[in-house]
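It is worth pausing here to work through a concrete case rather than discussing structure prediction in the abstract. The textbook approach is simple: state the sequence, then state the predicted structure, then interpret. We follow exactly that order.
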Amino acid sequence: MNSVRHGMWLAIGLVFTGFGLVGAVLPIIPTVPFLIVAAFAFSRSSKRFHNWLVNHRIFGPPIRDWQESGAISRRTKWIATLTMSAGIGVSFLAQLSWIIIIIQSVAIGVACLFIWTRPDTKPR
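Step two, the predicted structure:
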């Protein structure tokens, strides 16, 4: 049973790392939330992958900030807000149904509220 659980956590970590890497190159998909889930999964399955992710030069600092204090950098908050707003703009340009745009706007509003109520990271 432990090997099944171990394999499940490893698979989750790998899948979410993949999602995070896709998000690193596509502006509308987030990166850090996926990598936070991957780090969590790796902490239960692979010390090597967990250490690699948490100590990564680019991806490590926001993961560590979240793990240590639930903090999000001000820059990341602005980037997230702007990309989510751009998503609504694309929906308008694509002339999606108003109900879809309203649902999307409410979901994005809740996400922004969550992001902006997290503490800012401390300057390094």
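Step three, interpretation. The chain has a mean pLDDT of 89. Helices lie at 2-25, 32-43, 47-54, 60-69, 74-93, 98-116.
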